[in-house]
Amino acid sequence: xxxxxxxxxxxxxxxxxxxxxxxxxxxxxxxxxxxxxxxxxxxxxxxxxxxxxxxxxxxxxxxxxxxxxxxxxxxxxxxxxxxxxxxxxxxxxxxxxxxxxxxxx
Length: 105
What we know:
Largest sheet: 5 strands, antiparallel
Structural class: mainly beta
Number of domains: 1
Number of helices: 0
CATH architecture: Sandwich
CATH superfamily: Jelly Rolls
Distance between the termini: 29 Å
Radius of gyration: 14 Å
CATH class: Mainly Beta
Shape: globular
CATH topology: Jelly Rolls
Strand order of the largest sheet: 1-2-8-3-6
């Protein structure tokens, strides 16, 4: 068996967020997301058909919903129900923000 490390193989310069699928099977997808001061483009909202649970492994972020903002630090996790409109309004500028996201039906 070969192991992998979620903190390795991250490019130094990222023009846009990096999405890497770790595992995908039967309505379940694990993704590593790396943000480098990236945000969701102004006026765009994610409105996903699947639920999304994530944990912040490194960095910091702010997720905006239509009615509130949630500030996240290392170790914080959040479950976003399907069709709950949200956007990433800020990620750390001092270090890369690394998320582990699980998308599920």
